[in-house]
Amino acid sequence: MKTPIKDYLSEIVESVRPDESGEVADYIPTLAEANPDRLALAMTTVSGRTYTAGDTDTEFTIQSMSKPFAYAAAITEHGKDKIDSIVGTEPSGEAFNELSLEQGTHRPKNPMINVGALAINQFVCQPGANWKTRTKHMVGLLSTLAGRKLRVDYDAYESEMDSAHRNMSIAHMLAAYGFIETTPHDAVRGYTAQCSVLVNTRDVAMMTAVLANGGVNPVTNQTVLGRSVVRRVLSVMAIAGMYDEAGEWFTEVGIPAKSGVAGGLLGALPGQAGLAAFSPRLNDHGNSVRSIAIFRKLSEDLGLHLMDADAIGSRALRGTRVSNGRSIIEIQGPVNFTAAEIVLNRLATSTPSESEVVFDVSRVGVVNPVGRTLILEAMRRLSHEGKEILFYDPEGVLPNPDMGEGLLPVILQDAP
């Protein structure tokens, strides 16, 4: 059976493609030359599976999507208390390139805006390290997160340095308040190089899945970041990751996220998946128009808002077995998107060879609308592959199991 998840992601991409509003970031020469029609979406689950749609192999510079990972590196290297003395955790309510400082302490309000990120870049490795050393450390961390070797696009870096006047002025102000340990020029170089790392949406989805998985790479099982570090990073992303659009974003979409002016957008849903979208046209807040539309659609369709009270179904597949010539799929617990995806993946990677397939949901407590749709779609696709579908649901947790196209499973009265 072919899993329907990739088809669904492709439908989302195509649904937002007609939207040509917004403009590319023309204040950075290399970004001004970007193809505005590029569009991509990738999802990596905490089980380590990646689903993609669109131009997912197209590379672009990570830009401000690097900020959560730099913040994580700084906390890991120097500890929470030290980093808290350098940068706050409050939303600024201002544009990403404003000099948003706290009264009294003069520290940047949060690490997701430029002034905070310039300060944080000073602390991503050992104290006093120059920009080249800091860049090497950040590229190493981002590569570990992505699961492949990444590199800095030095053409983009030089282009951004040529127009980095505002960031340079911010760095001088930070130096005046004692938050720059090297020099303002070195600070801007390090931050700009960090933002110039080349990635694609597959990379970003995998990097974000590490955050969603509590700091553990879901493919290699390597612990990259501590759980307490990840919790703090995701919390700050939730309140400040989308700049002066952060409040509306979290209220409407409910996914801790971070955007970049190249058109990238990442989001981490704890315990479920890392998400990444890419489309170069930006709105007035500096966030990708079509990437935002994609995330809104995902959140609405799949019930991904963090404040929704769905339980997580990470152990949904109790097992598969063969009995009396039938393949029996035993599902348990609450069935939401994550739970259904686990079942679908098993069916996609190990399609039952028996002619009769039984879906046993006798141990399921509740099925949300997304879980229902995906399970029924799996049944429909197996039916199209010539399987006879049987259904055992003694508690009626999935009533009226219409697979579509007039297809209904054979209802079993006794346990298979």
From TrEMBL:
HAMAP family: Glutaminase (MF_00313). One of its GO terms (molecular function) is glutaminase activity. NCBIfam families: Gln_ase (TIGR03814), PRK00971.1-4 (NF002134). SUPFAM superfamilies: beta-lactamase/transpeptidase-like, SpoIIaa-like. Residues 316-391 form the STAS domain. One of its GO terms (biological process) is L-glutamine catabolic process. It comes from Corynebacterium amycolatum. This is Glutaminase.
